């Protein structure tokens, strides 16, 4: 193995021309420089220096090794610069878990902004439902989770959360539905309809069932899917009605106090001040603030 510290001595000799001048530049004694160069020759198995009295010059093998030494020094400088950029939050990778509509509304615009503002920051996005992203966050598989506020325990000190946006739920009606021409729809008017909802365990289903309960009925569930595009297609085919977040499928506003989805970004407690996390949070907040219907 070649000792990179000895390569530095060889480079100094090539730069300054004499052992004395190299020693002065390195803050070493001429004897120490000579010893380092002799040890380097032993390591590589080649004569690196031509010695003529007090003067020395590089052999072809020495010149070849200097070129490699310069390349090694350049890589070390780049590594040092990258580490400094990493410490400053200008480079690195952040893993984000988010449900699909938030990817569309805030994550994708944030990713585009970061590519311009901080090209050294790589955002890796994973499509995952909000209720499933928190375990991934706590397990260290992602660095930031975008989820619904009410899915997070307020007393969970393992997490720090930051509000992103609030969006209402809209009613989605089949074509030519009698209520389709209204500016707003009363949920109670849909008590006798078939419903298209998300699967059990999806927090959107919880919101729908609670909203219907508050309107005085339990929805008659005919179809279920966690894909909002599929829900929209089923409603469009006349399979039933749906209540979905506005960012997922645009529908008709609910009369009165519409159900709301409050969306937050959550990180592991203690990581909120990491420069990369802060940079991503700031990038998320701009499109979130533009999008929010709160």
UniProtKB/TrEMBL annotation:
Residues 2-59 form the HTH lysR-type domain. The keyword DNA-binding applies. It comes from the Bacteria. It holds the Pfam family HTH_1. Transmembrane segments: none annotated. InterPro entries: LysR_HTH_N, LysR_subst-bd, WH-like_DNA-bd_sf, WH_DNA-bd_sf. SUPFAM superfamilies: Periplasmic binding protein-like II, Winged helix' DNA-binding domain. Signal peptide: none annotated. Keywords: DNA-binding, Transcription, Transcription regulation. PANTHER family: LYSR SUBSTRATE-BINDING (PTHR30346:SF29), TRANSCRIPTIONAL DUAL REGULATOR HCAR-RELATED (PTHR30346). Belongs to the LysR transcriptional regulatory family. This is LysR family transcriptional regulator.
